[in-house]
Write a structure and sequence with these properties.
It is globular, with a radius of gyration of 26 Å. It is mainly β. The model has no long low-confidence stretch (mean pLDDT 86). It has 3 helices and 19 strands. α2 runs antiparallel to α3. The strands form 6 sheets. A 5-stranded antiparallel sheet has the order 1-2-5-4-3. Strands 13, 14, 16 and 19 form a 4-stranded antiparallel sheet that branches. It has a 3-stranded mixed sheet with strand order 8-12-11, covered by helices on one side.
Length: 327
């Protein structure tokens, strides 16, 4: 679909007459199915970090052949003109006679190589979360469900929290960052991992103390090498405790603004704002929205949060092989 200026939707049949029809979502574009005759190669990769040091982006990449004029770079009717960043790509396949659903991905990049082959690169919902900013927040014994709703409601992702984590609470500060990083902060704090399901929801489950898997002989390849990584014998974790400061307030803003609404972001958490030259419409530990009705200098005072850190350290107690030492 291209060069459209309006969309008219007509409901011709309903099972609830004399009621309003509510449209919750509209998807623009055309639907196209890539079949076996076009696919040259395809691969899907999903990863998790066993200690939640990172929330990985799931990827699906595929190449089609025999594109011809349908995806030709110079064709006036090429479907390349209908491609858009973040378009939905639903992935399913039949493997060993069994149908499998891999879920929804989003178009991240595409390259028409030679008029015959076209490469598509797609990411999952976690990849989309890394492209948008999260406002963060300050939490104090806040239930996990409330934290997830506060941080991610504006993004529109659905979470499914394991019952073992439903009573978890969070205390601490999340700065302005992207949604993916904010999710990693939450998972690390409660000892959980985030997994994207084929239904395009994010399942939050407890960390496993051990991940065991058996690779049978029929899954091994001749000539494959096994690499052993360095053993970790020392782990240090720094925790933060935030308390509002007292006494004189800091001048956190002193700048001229034109008339209008302005969003002001801070690189440290603040509270107890005072303003001259404008009014505060929205206040948050990481930002404020100010309404300037007369152009001029706006000054903002606030208390900062004091950050008290505590270092926790765990070292391996059992001797290492070969008499090696821990430093």
């Amino acid at each position: 679909v291209a060069d459209y200026y309006g969309v008219v939707v007509e409901v011709t049949k309903t099972n609830r007459p004399y009621s309003r029809a509510v449209i919750s979502q509209m998807q623009f574009g055309l639907e196209y199915l890539f079949g076996d005759t076009e696919l040259l190669e395809a691969n899907t990769v999903s990863e998790i970090s066993p200690v939640s040091e990172c929330v990985f982006v799931g990827q699906t990449n595929f190449t089609i052949v025999g594109a011809g004029d349908r995806f030709g770079a110079l064709s006036a009717t090429s479907l390349l003109n209908a491609l858009q960043s973040s378009q939905e790509v639903y992935v399913s396949a039949t493997i060993d006679g069994t149908a499998r659903e891999f879920g929804t991905y989003y178009l991240d990049d595409w390259v028409a190589q030679d008029g015959i082959r076209v490469q598509f690169k797609c990411v999952d919902i976690i990849g989309m979360m890394s492209k948008r900013d999260c406002i963060g927040g300050m939490f104090n014994g806040t239930p996990l469900a409330t934290v997830l709703n506060t941080l991610f409601s504006s993004f529109g992702v659905t979470f499914k929290v394991d019952s073992a984590l439903s009573a978890e609470t969070l205390t601490g500060w999340i700065p302005v960052t992207d949604y993916r990083t904010a999710l990693q902060y939450v998972c690390f704090a409660i000892g959980a991992v985030a997994i994207v399901t084929p239904e395009n929801t994010i399942r939050v489950t407890p960390l496993q103390e051990a991940i065991l898997s058996t690779f049978d002989r029929d899954r091994k390849f001749i000539g494959q090498t096994l690499e052993r990584r360095k053993e970790i014998t020392d782990v240090q974790v720094t925790s933060h405790t935030y308390t509002p400061a007292t006494g004189d307030k800091l001048k956190v803003l002193d700048q001229a603004y034109d008339v209008g609404l302005w969003d002001i972001y801070f690189d440290k958490p603040l509270t107890n704002y005072e303003i001259t030259g404008a009014t505060i419409e929205v206040q948050h530990p990481n930002m404020i929205t100010i309404d300037v009705t007369v152009a001029g200098t706006v000054t903002v005072l606030a208390h900062e949060y004091l950050d008290e850190t505590t270092l926790a350290r765990v070292q391996r107690q059992t001797p290492l092989a070969g008499g090696a030492r821990t430093y």
